[in-house]
Amino acid sequence: MPASLIITLSVVLATAVIVGAVLLLVRGYTDDLARAEGDLANLALTLQERTDGILQSIEGVLRDLVERIPQASLRATEFDGFAGSQATKAVLVGASCSLPQFVRIDLVNARGKLVGTSNPRPMSDPIYLTGASYYQAFTTDPSLTSYLSEPMRIRTTGKKVLSLARRINDTEGNLLGIVVSTIDLSHFETLFKEHLRKPSSAVTFYRRDGVVLAHIPNSERALGRKIWKLDTPLQRMIAKNSPTLIRDVSWIDRQERLFALHPLANQPGGIAVSRTVAELMAGQRLEARVIGLIAYLMGVAVDTASLMGLRHVRTGILRAASESYLSRHDVLTRLPNRPFFIEELKRTYLASQRTGTDFALHLLDLNRFKDINDNHGHGAGDEIIQIVARRLRERSRKSDFIARIGGDEFAIIQRPVRDRQQVKDFVAAIQAVMKTPCTAGSTEIDVGLSIGVAIASSDGKTATELMRAADVALFAAKSDTDSSYRFYDPNIQDSRAERRAIEGALKSALDNREFELFYQPILDLATNRMWGCEALVRWKHATKGMIPPLQFIPTAEESGLIAPIGDWILEEACATAMTWGLPLKVAVNLSPVQFKRRDVFASVTKALNLSGLPAHRLVLEITESVKLTEEATAALRRLKTLGVGISLDDFGTGYASMSYLRSFPFDKIKIDQSFVRSMIESSGSRAIIKATIGLANDLKMSTTAEGVETQDQLNALRVAGASQAQGYLIAKPMPREALAAFMADIQNPQQTARAVA
C-alpha cells in the first residue's frame, strides 16, 4: 500500500476520532461546568448572606448609638460636649465590646474633629479626620446615610481594617457628626477561608465601585485596589449589581477564572467566588483519555506542529462551549434564559407550521414576589425561584421547553398539544403543585402563580404575535381577582395601553393646570366645630372631564409622577389653608413613592415656607404601604420636630397597623370607613372601633372616623369617644370656592351644631 494512502487513511481516521471526541468532550464539559457553576453560585450566596449578617449587626449597633443621642445634643453647640463626656465614653466602650469585629468606635463632628472614642487612651491633641473618605462622602452627598470605606492597615499593629460609618443629623436635618466603627478584616478573611474547598478557589469582598475590601487567599497587592480593569466583562457585571456568572482574566493572578458574583442586600458591595478555568478542565478524566487517543493517532499521521495546532483548536472549542452555555442559561435555576427561549420559540413555531402540529405558550409570573423579597430577604427570594423552577420541571414532559425569562417570570412551551383540554390540564397540574407552601430557610411561604396562555394555531401568526398574546393574557390573569390564569382572547382589553395614555397625559397635566384640590370638612365631636379639612386631588382632563383619583393615582405612582404632583398638592393645600378665616388644619395624603423618590422633609418645608402656614396646622396622612424604613422614620421625626402632625390612615385594614403604632408616635389614627359604615349592623365593627379609640387614648393619639353617612353612625361615634368625624353627613368634598362659602355659613357654632345634631 502506498505511503501516501496510509497517511491519507490515518488522517481520515484521526479526523473521525476528533469529531467524536469533541462531541463527547463538549457534552461532558457542559455537565461538569454546570455543576461547578452551581457550587460557585451557592457558595457566593452563602458568603453574601453571612457577610450581610455581620454588617447588619454592626449597622444595628451604630443605629442604636445614634438613637441614644438626646434631643438637646442634636445641636452643634451641644454635640461636642455630649460626645466627649465620660458617660458617652462608657457607652462607646460597651458598644465596641458588643461584637468581636469591632476594633473601636469613634464620634466625629461636622468639622471633622474626633470628639469621642471608645479607645481607652485619652486624646492629648486634637485629631481632625477631614481627609477620611467617609467624611468627604458625607459632606459631599447630603442624602448619604451610611458609608463603607476602603481598607487600610494600622501601622502600629499591622492589623487590616475598614470603616463602616453612619451619618448623624441635627434637628434641621444638616450634618451634625459621624459615628465611625473600625472593623477588623481578619474576621471576614477567616469566614472566607473556612469555605474554600478547591486549590484554585478565591473569594473577594468588593465594594460596588470595584474596590477590593478583602481577598482570600491573601494578596496584599489586591487590598484597596479595584477588582476590575476598565471595559472588561467583570467590570460590566459588577456594575449591573445582580447575581451572575462570568468568565474573565483576574488581574490578581493573571489567570482566567469563572466568577460567581452576588451583591450584598444592604450595603454597596458584593462577594465574588471564583475558580480557575484550568482547574475546572484538569478534572476531566474522560477528556484526558480522549486527548491521549487523539495524540497517539495524530502522531501516526501528522507531525508535532500539527498536533500543537489541534491542541489550540481543542482549547478554542472548550472555551466556546463554556461561553455558549453561560450566555444561554440562567445562573440561579440552570434553565434556559430569555434569549435562548426566544430562539426556541421561533424554531418551534416554524416547525409547527411545517408539520401541522400545535403547541401552547405559557407565561408565568409569581404573585407579590417583591413582598417576599422585602419581608424575607433576597436569599429567600432566590430559594423560592429555585423551588418553583424545580416544580415546573417535575410537571413538564421531556418535550416541553421551560425557561426563566425574568426576575420572577417563567415561560413554558408545551409541545405538542392535541386540544385545549390538554392545555387546561397542564395549567391545573401547575396550580396544584403550587398549592404546597415553599420552604425558604425555616419559613413556609405561600407562593401563587399567574398564568397567561396562548395557543399557536389560533392566537398568533408569528412567534412575536404569539408572545404578545400570552403577555396580554398574563396581564389579564394578574388583574383578575377570580382567576389565576387566562387564555388569550382577542376581546381582552389590555389596560396597559390605557395606562400608558394616562401616563402621557399626566406629564402635561401639571403644566396645563388640570389638577384641582377638593376639600372635605372634618368635624370636631367635642366642640361641634370644624377641626379642618382633608385635601383630595381631582384631575379635570381637557377632553375626558373629571377623572377620579383611583383611575390615575396608581399610574402616577408607578411612573414616579406622583412625586412632582405630590409637591404641588402640598403647596396648593398649604396656600389655600392660609386663605381661611379660621385657623383650621389641613390634612394631606402622602404616597409611599414620595418617600422613595422625594426628600419629604424638603418638600414639606418648602410648602410651609412658600405659604407661610404654621407647621402645626398641617397634618400628613400615611398608610401602612409606606415602609417605615430608618430613613422614612427619620424624616417623619424631623417633621414632628417642626410641629407637623402625622396621621396613620386606614387603620385596621392592613396586617402591620399594630407594629406601625409601636414603630412611630403618630398624632392621630384614622378609622377606616369600612368599619364605620357597618358599625350599626355589625357588633364586630363596633368592637373594633371601640378598641381602636381606647388604644388611641392610651397612646395619647386622637381619632378621626371616616365615611360617616348617617346620624346613627355619628351618635354612636360620639358615645364611643371618637375625636373627629368625616363623611357625607358632615359635608361632601368641595372645590376651594365652595368651601369658602361653606365656612362662612358655619361661623356660628349653633349653626354647626344644628347641621350635625
Automatic annotation (TrEMBL):
<dbReference type="InterPro" id="IPR035919">
    <property type="entry name" value="EAL_sf"/>
</dbReference>
<dbReference type="InterPro" id="IPR043128">
    <property type="entry name" value="Rev_trsase/Diguanyl_cyclase"/>
</dbReference>
<dbReference type="InterPro" id="IPR000160">
    <property type="entry name" value="GGDEF_dom"/>
</dbReference>
<feature type="transmembrane region" description="Helical">
    <location>
        <begin position="290"/>
        <end position="310"/>
    </location>
</feature>
<feature type="domain" description="EAL">
    <location>
        <begin position="499"/>
        <end position="747"/>
    </location>
</feature>
<dbReference type="Pfam" id="PF00990">
    <property type="entry name" value="GGDEF"/>
</dbReference>
<feature type="transmembrane region" description="Helical">
    <location>
        <begin position="6"/>
        <end position="26"/>
    </location>
</feature>
<keyword id="KW-1133">Transmembrane helix</keyword>
<keyword id="KW-0472">Membrane</keyword>
<keyword id="KW-0812">Transmembrane</keyword>
<dbReference type="Pfam" id="PF00563">
    <property type="entry name" value="EAL"/>
</dbReference>
<dbReference type="InterPro" id="IPR052155">
    <property type="entry name" value="Biofilm_reg_signaling"/>
</dbReference>
<feature type="domain" description="GGDEF">
    <location>
        <begin position="357"/>
        <end position="490"/>
    </location>
</feature>
<dbReference type="InterPro" id="IPR001633">
    <property type="entry name" value="EAL_dom"/>
</dbReference>
<dbReference type="InterPro" id="IPR029787">
    <property type="entry name" value="Nucleotide_cyclase"/>
</dbReference>
<protein>
    <submittedName>
        <fullName>EAL domain-containing protein</fullName>
    </submittedName>
</protein>
